[in-house]
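Exercise 7. Predict the joint structure of the components listed below.
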Amino acid sequence: MASTVAEVDTRIDDLINDLDTWWLLFGAILVFFMQTGFAMLEVGSVSVKNTKNILIKNIGDASIGAMCWWLLGYGFAFGDDVGRFIGDSKFAFSTKSWGGDISGYDYASWLFQWAFAATAATIVSGAVAERVAFGAYVVYSIVLTSFIYPVVVHGGWSTGWASAFRSPTKDDLLFGCGVVDFAGSGVVHMTGGVAALVAAIVVGPRIGRFNEDGTANQLPQQSSVLQTLGTLILWFGWYGFNGVSTLYISGLSNVASKVMVTTTIGAASGALMVVILMKLKVGYWDAGAANNGILAGLVSITAGCSTVDVWAAMIIGLTGGMVYFLASQLLVKLRIDDVVDAIPVHMFCGAWGVIITSFFITKANYSNAYYATYYDADGNIEGEEGDRLDQCAGVFYKGTGASLGAAIVFVLYILAWVGGTCTFLFGLIDKTIGMRVSKDVEEIGMDDSKHGGQTYPEMQKQAGTSGTV
Amino acid sequence: MASTVAEVDTRIDDLINDLDTWWLLFGAILVFFMQTGFAMLEVGSVSVKNTKNILIKNIGDASIGAMCWWLLGYGFAFGDDVGRFIGDSKFAFSTKSWGGDISGYDYASWLFQWAFAATAATIVSGAVAERVAFGAYVVYSIVLTSFIYPVVVHGGWSTGWASAFRSPTKDDLLFGCGVVDFAGSGVVHMTGGVAALVAAIVVGPRIGRFNEDGTANQLPQQSSVLQTLGTLILWFGWYGFNGVSTLYISGLSNVASKVMVTTTIGAASGALMVVILMKLKVGYWDAGAANNGILAGLVSITAGCSTVDVWAAMIIGLTGGMVYFLASQLLVKLRIDDVVDAIPVHMFCGAWGVIITSFFITKANYSNAYYATYYDADGNIEGEEGDRLDQCAGVFYKGTGASLGAAIVFVLYILAWVGGTCTFLFGLIDKTIGMRVSKDVEEIGMDDSKHGGQTYPEMQKQAGTSGTV
Amino acid sequence: MASTVAEVDTRIDDLINDLDTWWLLFGAILVFFMQTGFAMLEVGSVSVKNTKNILIKNIGDASIGAMCWWLLGYGFAFGDDVGRFIGDSKFAFSTKSWGGDISGYDYASWLFQWAFAATAATIVSGAVAERVAFGAYVVYSIVLTSFIYPVVVHGGWSTGWASAFRSPTKDDLLFGCGVVDFAGSGVVHMTGGVAALVAAIVVGPRIGRFNEDGTANQLPQQSSVLQTLGTLILWFGWYGFNGVSTLYISGLSNVASKVMVTTTIGAASGALMVVILMKLKVGYWDAGAANNGILAGLVSITAGCSTVDVWAAMIIGLTGGMVYFLASQLLVKLRIDDVVDAIPVHMFCGAWGVIITSFFITKANYSNAYYATYYDADGNIEGEEGDRLDQCAGVFYKGTGASLGAAIVFVLYILAWVGGTCTFLFGLIDKTIGMRVSKDVEEIGMDDSKHGGQTYPEMQKQAGTSGTV
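Solution:
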């Protein structure tokens, strides 16, 4: 029992620490569940003959990812800054590397960020499904989670060169603002999407995907049901992805709840836009379009979920849907084969999300989301923090354009960094162990060739074709 | 750091606000996940040929619902009262319409209530699956979420004529109590169920459902697995639906935990009862009966989850199971075709839940759930609040019958309001754009006709039938 | 508003109570969702012809389990101690049996523990799937949830003979420590696994599982997708299973977050080990191995999740994977047929988890997890609690071996108690109502014989075989 004001004050501090830790754990669990969503979405999008292959790759993304994130990734992302580029401490939960005790909040932070890292890795597997070699997958998963992605995180979210979280004042921030990428349209989705693009180019299209005349064929997709199940699970998990990116609930519940509302409106707007555009194009109501529309909206709103108003979330979702729709057709034109449309959804909408946000940032949202803890006793933001507000407001809100500048620079950085390292990585894989399975393996399918037989032996048997078990 | 008692007291207030907001967000996320449950349940219950059709409708319920709830629904439900019938402020997150700042808790409240609204809309799509026209579906989704459902919410939960939450004293409450429908057996489920009934009558039964002699055929259901997956997800989400309907966790954790226990016992009792009744009727253990029994129990306990004891929850679950069982057969007798038995589950068990609750309300539960915040310093309820307890206790607990009276009036109101508006709505749709697809479309299936081809092209190919992709 | 220090202190106490209650509810909901995981995993592992059968059994585990746990189980587990063996109060939420008011936390505790009990029961159904009689299933579910499992809980977690939670000092604890089985590798998983072993032996292998020459056939498994979906849901739910086993969040968030990290590393390590071992054995990357590897790692880390460091969690996961791999082959050698490998996963890895933990317990983790509340004002543990730390540290941390002794004794106890009671139970069932369906029923499949027809009538029809609906 506390008997002085100081003692009760300490009790409150302790309780807040417990709650902020739980908040992160809550988010981590939700974002981890997105692995299930990606697994179902991807398995629903591939042919029956590659079912087990995509399943085991999804399990691997989480498992290999956990090891890599533990040993290296988290430290590169959140360790002590080296040259604003990378971290170099906090490896492997070693107290030496952490410079002392590791708090409960630190463990929770690791878990939350691991779930994000696994997301970035998973995005690639959908794009290159049905023909990428298993060894190639293992190698790029390791490199992406251990090094390429953590460097982006360090630059965009931690104490790196573009981070908006580094300081409450504008000194020393990129364009006086840092990039506004609250939950990772750029950091996570565009990173995964660029890696997916390079991988898809290097590995090449599936046999039969493109015709001589440049048209594309829709290859068999085993189940719209699984794709939709996966998408809905992703939407569910996204409330953790965006909402819990406040990192604290104490003092930030207003931001978290607004974030979940903008996330909802973004998802809904994206779905409606893509369904309508697809109806105009192909003449029917396309269930896959509804799913990808949801994801386009979600990816697009992820950067600005905390800094824009609800009606702007609608505009971001609607335009994100258009970006997806056009990018998807662009890929076909370029003869890049992306099984689940991961590149349009994650790379294009990810970049779009970062850029469009800088038009709609309002001062009130920005100050709540980015430095609520810097208010003075009267709830005002004065001095340098106030200057930063003027500097960083959105282009449509009398801003200086500094946020837009930071957004463009950061998007170009991701393109260059991830594109560059991945070109080297996938090129190297291709020259050595090989990116792609043989033509025979691709035609028979991965499951028969590499995973001990197809998935549904009974249905095959009933259908009179030869089972493999 | 706080240095006075007043300052620490304020810190506690702030923290409580953060936590109550999080509590609502927690519930909103769980209830939103029920959309996934409904989608899986419904897609598992229809024929393969209508798979994509039901999936896109479920995505639409959430997406269209979000837009409608944002622009109109929430305001009609929770805006400033007009004539105890409807609200007329709090539209579209406009600060003008909200009369000032919108708090974090307000955003969370919107999200939580949106998930409920989407539930009400989804109920209809299961009943009229496999033959309702897509345009008709879009129109009724909009009207239901924007207007018909919000009016029920205003009347039953907000500051409307039947609400028990409006005041701690019995003055000015319906029968001195208001209707005890804690989490919405009536407000949500019966509303969705009545709309489903009208829609099913107007659209008519599927081809082949009923024979000339009045008997019914079981039309193909694509997957018990998906139906069960959906049902278990619904049970999971229902802990948010009922438990988080306390709306606050501070001071109400005792209610929330008891609610989750009664919800569990209700679900379990319903499942056991329906499985046994079905075994007696058809002679085998029916998996579908187990699923619908869970839902019957859950819907039935939703009204009284906070105000009855655990053993009463068992009785409510068991009798709810019987109500479902009988209602399901009644529908067949009346030649009303309901693909997923949504009408027995949601309308009949919803009404039953509201009415049966009024027999089992105990004073202790009622005062905890309905006005914990009105206790005086000694934990007593005195004066007018005490009078209300005497007035509103259950019929089996020496109550005056006032709660039963309010329950019956509210059930009749839902029947009249939703039945009336839906009769007009569906009649109008039928006369104009048409409620039903053509006979050809129905026989071929929606997916081939309207959604770009069937869902499982590979399995068809294996089976030697013609694929469509 | 509070005006004295004592009043604000009380406000903090009340808030902490609300939050600890919510924490348990949060965990209960997550653990309940594991029922969905088990259902999907099991249905994915059986033949199409037994789909509905396994689904209804999974629903029954939760439903029957709720009734039994309410009426008897919770009281036997957590009621007032009788002879360190069993509890005898707290039945059926009767205030008489509880000796007074039942708090919100009590209700939450019941819910959390019910979800664990349902887990123990569900483990059996996977092992004996496809041939166990429905009546036999109902009887063993009731006995297991009402009596056999609660006795283990009382002994290991409550105030029973082996519990480490009974006292902060070593007096009167088994080997001065009690068994370190934080979240139930032994209490839950090994209990379920031993019951599954006895059941599998008594019921015998499926027709066609074993050849005359001792080799085994892989019988048809309907879907790797459903198996993986189930496994990923289990991983998701396991964060509640292990993490929320702190039972309180206030003062224990550091333990909860570390637990979720060790749980993650355990799961990932198990998956990687089993995949690699299986690749070495069969030559391909096995998706089923990845799934069972996750579960092997999770079950193994469950006992020690709070008391070992992260690198030790990796060792526990890796060795747990080996234990699973060897045990799975041992079962085949012994001609014991276990459809989902529940016995290797839950019994062998469960026992392994309890034992291996006692090598890696560190004092810092142990004191945080087991008696954080006993620190003195300076954060030290003195006197008898300090003695206990010296006594109970892991074998690799200069411990006395007392924890290892307690672990071995507890594992032997579960083997004896569950093995003994289940031998009697299943023997009795076998002699009376019969454990097994007839040969005809088994060959036709349960769904046609007992559940009103097969699950996928349309696919059958397409395949030209006779449908049953």
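Discussion. Residues 462-469 of chain A have pLDDT under 50 and may be disordered.
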